[in-house]
Amino acid sequence: MRIISYRTFHDDVVTSRHQDYRLPPDFDWQEPGKWWQRRLVRLLAKGISVVYCHWTVAFKNAWRLKAAGQQGYVLYGNHTQPTGDVLMPYYLGDRRRFNVLASPANLGIPVIGPLICLGGALPTPQRFRQMKVFNATVTEKLLAGDWVVIYPEEHVWPYYTGIRPFNLSAFHFPIAAQVPAYCLTVTYRKRWWRRRPKRIAYVDGPFEPDRSLSPKQQQHQLADQIQACMTKRAATSNATYIEYEEG
Hints:
Elements: E1 2-6, H1 35-56, E2 57-60, H2 63-66, E3 73-77, H3 84-92, E4 98-102, H4 113-116, E5 121-123, H5 131-143, E6 147-150, H6 172-177, E7 181-191, E8 194-207, H7 215-234, E9 242-246
Parallel strand pairs: 1-9, 2-8, 3-6, 3-7, 4-5, 4-6
Antiparallel strand pairs: 7-8
Helix pairs in contact: 1-3
């Protein structure tokens, strides 16, 4: 069994040569490229996701996202699949309205990097002065009926079976746009004929905080609701493919 050591739950255990990629100071988060480029990349990603998810993931309660209709929403997920976390949202939702908060390091990957923004990726800002534009862009997309995927644990830990602490700022967007939030929890189950566990993904929600509270209180309430739900789902995992050791 593979063993990964970590010091804190915020460690990035999967790194690449492009980890230090920096966004340009004038990076534009609005629609990149030409319309046909966006459509082509999103259509291709949707097709790959259908093939990938059909053979590798069993979804439970996916209908909940359909119930959101044409309004925008935020989908939170546990970050445990380097490939699956890219493709599963495409499989679950409308590719044309899909957006995902992503690490800027992904833009430095040759060939794929320049395409991810065409596919809906919104790289998180690295400079304080970029935050205002970034937050406004995400909120505008939600108000326009787009949906946004956020991994509040921030870093991917492959096949991790628990729920790590969330970045509270990730829960700003449903409050600012006053849209519902959902969660997607990937769990891992034993298979007698294979060492690699079966993946079962649960969709839960919608979650809506008490609007009578202050925005900051709503953020805390929403984070607590989603973390409690995801922790309950994650507890159904009964297979360990990668062992994580603090040290």
